UniProtKB/TrEMBL annotation, chain A:
Domain Nitrite/Sulfite reductase ferredoxin-like per the UniProt entry, residue ranges: 572-633
Subunit structure: Homodimer which associates with NirD.
Protein name per UniProt: Nitrite reductase large subunit
Organism placement in taxonomy: Bacteria, Pseudomonadati, Pseudomonadota, Gammaproteobacteria, Oceanospirillales
Record-level Gene Ontology MF annotations: 2 iron, 2 sulfur cluster binding; 4 iron, 4 sulfur cluster binding; flavin adenine dinucleotide binding; heme binding; metal ion binding; NADP binding; nitrite reductase (NADH) activity
NCBIfam families to which the protein is assigned, alphabetical: nitri_red_nirB, PRK14989.1
InterPro entries: BFD-like_2Fe2S-bd_dom (IPR007419), BFD-like_2Fe2S-bd_dom_sf (IPR041854), FAD/NAD-bd_sf (IPR036188), FAD/NAD-binding_dom (IPR023753), FAD/NAD-linked_Rdtase_dimer_sf (IPR016156), NasD-like (IPR052034), NiRdtase/SiRdtase_haem-b_fer (IPR005117), Nit/Sulf_reduc_fer-like_dom_sf (IPR036136)
From TrEMBL, chain B:
Keyword check for DNA repair: no
Gene designation per UniProt: nirD
InterPro entries: NirD (IPR017881), Rieske-like_NirD (IPR012748), Rieske_2Fe-2S (IPR017941), Rieske_2Fe-2S_sf (IPR036922)
The entry's keywords: 2Fe-2S, Iron, Iron-sulfur, Metal-binding, Nitrate assimilation, Oxidoreductase
Membrane-spanning residues: none
GO biological process, one term: nitrate assimilation
Top-level division of the source organism's lineage: Bacteria
Record-level Gene Ontology MF annotations: 2 iron, 2 sulfur cluster binding; metal ion binding; nitrite reductase [NAD(P)H] activity
A Pfam family per the record: Rieske_2
Keyword Metal-binding: yes
Organism: Kushneria phosphatilytica
NCBIfam families: nirD_assim_sml (TIGR02378)
Protein name (record): Nitrite reductase small subunit NirD
Amino acid sequence: MTAHNPTHDSRQQLVIIGNGMVGHHCVEQLIERGATEHYRIHVFGEERHRAYDRVHLSEYFSGKDADALALGEPDLHKTHGVELHLGTRISAIDRDAREVVTPEGRLGYDSLIIATGSYPFVPPVPGPDSDMHPQARLVYRTLDDLDAIRSHAKTARRGVVIGGGLLGLEAANALRSLGLEAHVVEFAPRLMPVQLDEQGGIALREHIEGLGVGVHVGRATEEIAALSAGDDYRYRMHFKGGETLDTDMVVFSAGIRPQDQLARDCGLEIGERGGIVIDDSCRTSDPEIFALGECALWQGRLFGLVAPGYTMARTVAGCLTGGEERFSGADMSTKLKLLGVDVGSIGDAHGVTEGAKSYRWIDEAGSGYRRLVVSADGKKVLGAVLVGDNSYYDTLLQYAQNGIDLPENPASLILPQSEGGVPTLGADALPDTATICSCHNVTKGAVCQAVDAGCADIAALKIETKASTGCGGCTALLKQVFENELESRGMEVDRSLCEHFAYTRQELYALVRVEGITRFEELLDRHGHGLGCDICKPTIGSILATCWNQPIMDPQNVALQDTNDTFMANMQKNGTYSVMPRVAGGEITPEKLVVLGEVARKYNLYTKITGGQRIDLFGAELHQLPDIWQELISAGFETGHAYGKSIRTVKSCVGNTWCRYGVQDSVGMALELEHRYKGLRTPHKIKMGVSGCTRECAEAQGKDIGVIATEAGWNLYVCGNGGMRPRHAELFATDIDSDTLIRYIDRFLMFYVRTADKLQRTSVWRESLEGGLDYLKEVIIDDSLGLGEELEAQMKHVIDTYECEWANALGDPEKLKRFRTFVNDQCGDPDIVNVTERGQPRPARADERPESLAVEISS
Amino acid sequence: MTAANAIRSDIDIHELCCTADLVAWSGVVALHQGHQIALFYLPQGHDRQGEAEIFALDNHDPFSGANVIGRGIIGDKGGEPVVASPIYKQHFRLRDGVCLEDPEQRLTVWPVRLEGDMVVLETPAPDHPTR
């Protein structure tokens, strides 16, 4: 801890208590506004984790870890000299001394921000001793809470959530994704009583029951009793009226309470039912102390959503840096996907405004419900409720927030459309003041300004305005506004592959397939112009290879390939190549291992084990490649496609064949996958992994396709990668058998090949997919596009026509002619000079080369 | 590989290789008196409409220091035929060897032409021919 008032530092001291989403946003805002010039900032977080995304907490159980949920740059604080104290609890605020009390001593402050958030409310239901029975009184709020839930779920079959609000349903989803039979108990007569009306609650309940989650509304829990060891479940919940429900664990999610204890203890003004009282500038009753987020009470109201918290964070950051922002309340409209069900609630959802009238649309067959609440004069939208389909939400929200006059037939806004899809309010109809992104308070005007300033794509726009980087709910709207703005400026978004083809990779793929084009020149004649270039040639070479699987060394293909594909080896910095035969699943016989060693020794190749469980032999010259491959193929090796944008390797652990913990034969599955997909050309390289148990030694979750064995079969993960921007793969399907696994992967790969952009890895492709993982599941698992059979047939064609490219080339003297360093001399490149390091050759650096050669090169 | 036929007194003609050694729309490399020459063969010319053309540039890539230009992909930039270095992908004009990304860098252009089945290089004859 730094000293109270270092003499060399004239800056004031600012202390922030709380490192949740809102506290963190406040720090970001302060940094952005240059507050570190005037303040030394200390941030205290009670949790041991960096600030993380609590809104998407349930994804912790579907593949995301703490890092994936973390907010902002990991070294944000360090970079800007902000002191971050994690796992540190402030025990008191001494307002007289202007100090906070930390476990390590006192720390002075000039300004203080309280962002302590809220805690879960656990009603005083009598139950067993909580030390002996922690699983009878779990809560759902922090990552540590989730870890506790996960650990208790291991020995449980059924879990009950008390509380049928937004968080309670999230918690039920979490239990479900842990494999438990989940139940929700709600005191009110319907689910989500705050956001939904009666009919909306009924529709939501039907959806959720349809997913196998038990829903018990209008139930007051009077006691939780421990059952004896011989019973089926651990606890029995007794409801008022005599009904009971047995369970192994109970999660309380019956609402939140502001975490205002520190403020109470130091005498700040507190609301009657809790909450630190703040004014429009978020100041508490002590003007040097601010409060924001869920612990703050503004005009008698608490705000349990992240967007108002962010607005308060901006207000405070503004106050401390000379800004003028004021907090003036917040819109509590929400759009959610709960257990996969769309739920939307806008403004006056219950129609309590005087004279309000409602339009309702009810679909009892499909459990759909929509309600539009309009003003007494029938001109404005006051509120809305949506269950089952949120595609109406954006438009309704814009009507409500911007006071736009309703169309002649207001009901059309919620009625199913016979054609043309959901009615959308054209982006041009929105006023400049319309809020596009409520998380970061970005208006349409700000988006337009950014476009004027040169933002030419959505990615640039997101960086410039921060729009759509919060909850992401406004992505579609942002895109709409962006495209509308470009259009109105007479600009076009150029998606051409390059100057030779005015098409995207996806469009070219379709043209090749539909028109049955098998040669680059044919495509160039019909749909392009010029000679082509180093962008379009390899891209189209890859498309042709995926579609028709012609050998890449065939004369019509050879000039299209990058040097790696041309010579079926990987070019290194000095113009030599590395050679990497396939070692499927990382399994290799001693005999083959010896051959690799002998070949490497004979040709003086540097030898290294790769991350993909293969052996790479470096330093072969062009004219040596055929000889090397002749020897490798004679020993039973085949090409490893390490040079191609193609399926590379399937990494595996030894699985249950050897391992004490393995539950399936991961090597067998890795071999099956690798041999099935080897040679498939894809928009970018693809790596896979198969682990034999959840210990995940094959690191399958870091791969484009990851497979992890379970007791019952396999879990499939998709769209992960290491590399420049690592991304955890996401859980795609659980406990599937081998046939289903292969069917899903067939479809997944072919769908990726068909729709991805050039050099777009699965992770980036996944992030660009509108509809995200759910959409992908619909296409692959539910076959929503009816493409399943076609994708499988395409894959079958590639598999059936596989041949080792090196074996093919070695059989054709014409093809071998290419493997000459010089067409008129047998010698190698005299400029290739190696030195020995650690017993192996490596390219000489400039200062290690003989002087005479340097002269030769520069002459 | 030295002068085979002297058809003019001030020019030496060297046969580098056969046209069969060339690869359509791609490059190969010939060695000439210690110089590595990348040969690019456009069987229908740079507009894909006319006579066959051949271009010859130094094989040495000034950016990577490796001798790899002959293994680059041929294409055009705004109609101007170019080769892309296979290492860091800079483009060099086939006509004059100038690098589009960095015009300071320029590859030597070798005077080659197709003659029958042969690719020939014409160099100035030594001042005092010994023939």
